[in-house]
Design a protein that fits this description.
Number of strands: 2
Shape: elongated
Number of helices: 4
Strand order of the largest sheet: 1-2
Radius of gyration: 18 Å
């Protein structure tokens, strides 16, 4: 799924044209998708390891160490999250 601008009229929704996905864009999209899949796995399995790996893999996070730190901060701020992950 992507978000694009569109026009809406009596005949329906008409998306505006978008540029083709090129190499560097595809790489970023793949990396974000992989992080999302790990996040889903972490939730389904209750896995803290998959959760910090998901954070660490995301392109806006620069290392696994930062991913672990983010997970620690979230589990402290949201105790139910910490209890859900093993």
């Amino acid at each position: 799924m992507i978000e694009v601008g569109c026009a809406v009229d009596a005949d329906g929704v008409h998306p505006w044209p978008v540029a083709p996905v090129e190499g560097h864009m595809l790489g970023l999209m793949s990396q974000v998708k992989a992080a999302e899949q790990l996040t889903i796995g972490a939730a389904l399995e209750g896995s803290a390891e998959l959760a910090w790996k998901a954070f660490g893999l995301h392109p806006l996070v620069d290392s696994v160490a930062v991913g672990r730190s983010l997970l620690s901060g979230y589990t402290q701020a949201f105790p139910d999250l910490g209890r859900a992950l093993s």
